[in-house]
Amino acid sequence: MRIPCSGFACNAETDSLGKTPVSSPVDTGSLSYAGIARRAEDALPGGVLGRHAYPDGIEHVPVSGKGAWIVDHAGREFLDYSCGGGSLILGYSHPAVVRAVQNQAERATQFVSILNLPALQLAERIKELVGWVDRVRLALSGAEAVMFALRLARAATGRDRILKFEGAYHGNSDYALWGVAPREPAGYPATRPNSAGIPEAIGDLVLVAPYNDPEAAAAIMAEEWRKIAAIIVEPVQRFYAAEPGFLEMLRRSCDDYGIVLIYDEVVTGFRHALGGAAELTGIEPDLSVFGKALGGGLPVSAVAGRAAVMSHGDPRRGGPEDGYCYVTSSQAGNPLGCAAALATLAELARPGVMEDFHKSAEELKAGLRDIARKSGEAAQVVGAGPLWDIVFADGPIRNHRSAMRADGDRHRRFHLGLVERGVMVRVGGRSYFSTAHKDREVAFTLRAAETALRSAAK
Ligand SMILES: Cc1ncc(COP(=O)(O)O)c(C=O)c1O
Q1: What is the bridge-based pairing of β-strands 77-80 and 423-424?
Q2: Stated pTM of the model
Q3: CA-based Rg of the chain, rounded to a whole angstrom?
Q4: Which of 217, 371, 384, 420 has the most CB within a 10 Å radius?
Q5: Out of 15, 264, 286, 389, which one is annotated catalytic?
Q6: Which numeric CATH code is attached to 95-349?
């Protein structure tokens, strides 16, 4: 094991001294960060793949990972908590996932959404694990599966509007990118889009309510229910879990008004419980969306649910006038992703794996709580289940508005301090835990967090 880096600037000379990059068919080109950054600037808008970019001074391009650790372009090793945005629930390159992908790749990598055995097996496995599910459609990303779920709900109800919760991210579709990170309340249930290029007209179809506020959601439903097809809710939104009574109230109202209740379990699915959020809360939705952890790092997602709603995806219905709802793509049920998902679920279902995973995550949070308490600062450890962060706020954090009151600058300094000490978090983002994070990783993180917390206070 290499010594994790301390400090960040990485110059071309160090690079050329050359910690050898992993052997890869991908052109790693010059290993100078400045060279990579120049090429990225020429090839990619903003020199990045999406929104996420490390702040100035952090020169880091990951090239490989094993377990909980990643190695960057300069050969430095970090303990990683980005975990592929939560997809790598078993850590990087888990042998069972690698083996499953290799075996499947030798047979076939794709069948153009024709019924295939890995896809069928995966649908059956999801049904087995999430007991209330009757039918499953597979997709590639969380966003795609959410889009399918919303369309199925509209097809099933003949209504167009959806109710979502402020601060919730449900992927990159035109319907979902509303009210994700508003700085000012728009006045519920109105909201603003979070991207240019989204038709204003869709704003009439998306209603937003504050999370964990049953009265506010009830008032909107009482007014608007005739037009609402679905409520989409995360059982754990960002860090805060649904409070007792919240999901119960949503379930009751959906039953009363004929609205489809959708759980977005892209984050919680197969992470907080193998049986999904219904296993934890006892409240069953009509549809659930799974992604991220499901594929163990490969792109696969699913919308799963009750036969009455899912049957709208049956092409034997005929056309849209018969309620047929288009929910597929060329890559739907891609066998590579399904093989990876089957291996991931098999590993998670092995006796003790979920228990140890949750226990280690709780140990990390307990250690962080101890550090935060001793610091005497308004630092709170947040994260329901195997998610974690420290935020700097006095009051409880239970929805977007309360999260907005936290000290963002100090949060950022804390994250930068972690990175400087060899703990790679997405600065300003959420940290995930994986089954590869064990006692050694917890101890390493706590040592880094203690000093990072002190330096964040300055
Ligand atoms: C709750 C939730 N839903 C949906 C998505 C979208 O998933 P994807 O990025 O795979 O499209 C995300 C992604 O972060 C998410 O956190």
Answers
A1: parallel
A2: 0.93
A3: 22
A4: 217
A5: 264
A6: 3.40.640.10
Class of domain 12-93+356-457: alpha beta
Distance (Å, whole) CA 7 – CA 445: 16
Catalytic entry in 33, 164, 292, 432:
292
- Residue 142 Cβ inside 6 Å of ligand 1? The answer reads yes
Question: Is 264 a catalytic site residue?
Answer: yes
- The rounded distance, in Å, linking the Cα atoms of 22 and 19 is 9
- Domain(s) labelled CATH 3.40.640.10 in the chain stretch across 95-349
Measured in Å, residue 326 CA sits from the centre of ligand 1 at: 21
Which pairs from 319-327 meet CB under 8 Å and 24+ separation? 320/155, 323/155, 323/156, 324/155, 325/151, 325/152, 325/154, 325/155, 325/156, 326/151, 327/137, 327/139, 327/148, 327/151, 327/152, 327/303
Residues forming CATH 3.90.1150.10 domain(s) in the chain: 12-93+356-457
In angstroms, rounded to a whole number, what is the distance separating the alpha carbons of residues 329 and 441?
A: 40
Q: Is 292 noted as a catalytic residue in this protein? A: yes
| DSSP letter (8 states) at residue 4 | B
